Hints:
The complex is a heterodimer of chains A (about 575) and B (about 220).
Chain A: H1 29-33, H2 39-69, H3 79-115, H4 123-142, H5 173-201, H6 214-245, E1 256-257, E2 260-261, H7 269-302, H8 310-323, H9 339-367, H10 376-399, H11 401-407, H12 411-441, H13 447-473, H14 492-524
Antiparallel strand pairs in A: 1-2
Helix pairs in contact in A: 2-3, 2-4, 2-14, 3-5, 3-6, 3-7, 3-12, 4-5, 5-6, 6-7, 6-8, 7-9, 7-10, 7-12, 8-9, 9-10, 10-12, 10-13, 12-13, 13-14
Chain B: H1 3-7, H2 14-21, H3 29-59, H4 72-96, H5 99-129, H6 138-168, H7 174-203, H8 208-214
Amino acid sequence: MTTYVAHDASAFAPPAEVEEVELYHPKTFIGKYIWSQDAKVIAIQYAITAIGIGLVALVLSWLMRLQLGFPNTFSFIDPSNYLQFVTMHGMIMVIYLLTALFLGGFGNYLIPLMVGARDMVFPYVNMVSYWVYLFAVLLLVASFFVPGGPTGAGWTLYPPQAILQGTPGASWGILLMLVSLAFFIVGFTMGGLNYVVTVLQARTRGMTLMRMPLTVWGIFTATILALLAFPALLVSAIMMTLDVTLGTSFFMPAIVSMGQQLDHAGGSPVLFQHLFWFFGHPEVYIVALPAFGIVSDLISVHSRKNIFGYRMMVWAIVIIGGLSFVVWAHHMYVSGMNPYFGFFFATTTLIIAVPTALKVYNWVLTLWHGNIRLNVPMLFAIGFIFTFINGGLTGLFLGNVTVDVPLSDTMFVVAHFHMVMAIAPILVVFGAIYHWYPKITGRMLNDTMGKFHFWVTFVGSYAIYYPMHYLGFAGVPRRYYAITGTDLIPASAHSVNVAITIAALIVGAVQVVFLYNLIWSYFKGKPSGGNPWGATTLEWQTPDTPPKHGNFGATLPVVYRWAYDYSVPGAAEDFIPQNVPPAHS
Amino acid sequence: MSLLHQLMAKPWVADQIKVDDLYAGGASSGLAKKLALRVFLAVVAVLFMLLVIAYGRRMAYEDWRPSPQLGLLWANTFALILSSVALQWAQFSARRGQMDGMRVGLLAGGAFTVVFLIGQITAWRQLATMVYFDVTNPAIAFFYLITGVHGLHLLGGLVAWGRTAAKAWGDFDVADIRQSVELCTLYWHFLLLVWLILFGLLFMGNNLDILLKLCGIG
């Protein structure tokens, strides 16, 4: 009997030598783990920093919820504090946690391993990228300690109010925020150049672009988006810094503030909004595309089935990336625009639903008739699909101008974007950590704690954000310190707010279980072996677990197949790694 | 193979597997540097494009007050062109193995760049002493901002140029130095192009109509 493999093996080209690269070999502990040029160590540095600052943002969200659920109870939360919490929570979560974790963390760890490279192409630049990021984080943290505290302008930092006296942090906080963002962008650009060039130039023999796992496609496309979108934020940050420090009027119109005519004249606040959202909308996909890629791989591995419609999935990622640059003004429907302009942006926004829905169908079809293993990474992946559909559908509401206008600046918007770009990607982050932790440490994360963490987080998130949609319908505005003393808001809204706050406190607290699991399993977890999930991609085929400096031992792997040879009929096992040569009949 | 062509590939099909197995893998580090520079230039291009669009949008408002013309900018432009020409000469010489010619070209390129930067600072000072000077005038603020950002990019380029020059006067590998010179030259040509666009569109008389058309507003 002949062994059937996934493809015709007759014309199999013998492997040529893979060009070796010279690696920098550190000698000291500091060289290995502090000033490290190894992408895997840099990834962990990024991840720890991002999660650390993310925990600060989590506590800030608790404080906000405490105020909303129990107004007039906490004397240490005044309206200024509240706005500062809102602002810092948003900015940290979107940029300093999610962007840094997906691209700096997962990008650094997975790109070289998954494409079969020894390291990033420019390891030194990669190292500098992390340290600049850390500096940006420290500047941000510093703003908590300066006179006036951090900025309270909202994460969108709209001028003129962002820099007017009366807005919290208008003297120091806003400056530190802008400078920190500028440093973040410089640091990211260094990392981003690395990711793009490594994917394009450092793939191992046989690893064509269309053989790459979707994780790499997601991170790669998101990096290109980020490289092209962040300059808009950089430009607006520089211009606003000059408005604050030198008194220019890029964004500041002639304005009377606190009874005094200011020196500013002739600036355009709407210009800032355009620049900000030219960055801000792609930013949604900078976070979403890596999540799409990673979740595709998790679903395929844990349902023991090739991803449905691989090629479509790649195209969808690329098309979503392209479209994300022509929808930005749907964030500005209420800023006063030509109706035709709004029509254009509503149309492009709704068009994005097509490739996105296609991805959702393909995930579901991958699960269809799969040999589904409901382990923790898979639970998180499936949780992501539900959450993303929910958040995506409310996005269709808000994409339409006529529906958006009454819902604008209500809690409906808050519920929508938390579902689609906070809960959904963070579920993927958790799934990915449960999935790759065995490769990073050599030990499995504890399953019981993992399942507990999943169910409380998943159900709890719905307890927070489902009712919030109704608050939005009822007209509860966002960013309000308190909504007492008005007949507009029904009393039941307050009961809902109490329930949401309790759910938020529980969901936040359960993350301690996750952190404890990370530490406990590092020492006491079950040894995982090199490939505990039976996955095909190259990072699971390394000679050492965790992979050593240089990733693949003496010789680089040679790739003979795509990343999704699961349950191939006739094959001995239900997966065939990418570097297994085709068997001859 | 074009990117579009690659995106059409079906990696699970037997015929495609034969093609894919022939992919030779990682390219040389030289190509990686060149690609990295190109990607970086794309990022810089977006940065300046956004600045130009912002300028154009602001210009469309009724209260726009144009910035006074500075004759010195013509001389600066000439210096920057010379620096690009000199680096082109350095690249030409390096490719032919004429190391003395390369050194002369490098040195001249750096020198003209410094002349350009000093010229720009002088222009800043000229503008600051004029009666028109008003920091809240967007045209003037944009002038400082855009020339400043452009100058900073040239300063960054001078760091790379300094490293190349240090190599050129020390021990060097011919292929290595040739590549460094090529990368510098590409960067300088790019920044010259950016400057010519900025100068032509924004700082050389009133090109509002062209600019508005480019921004799709007019």
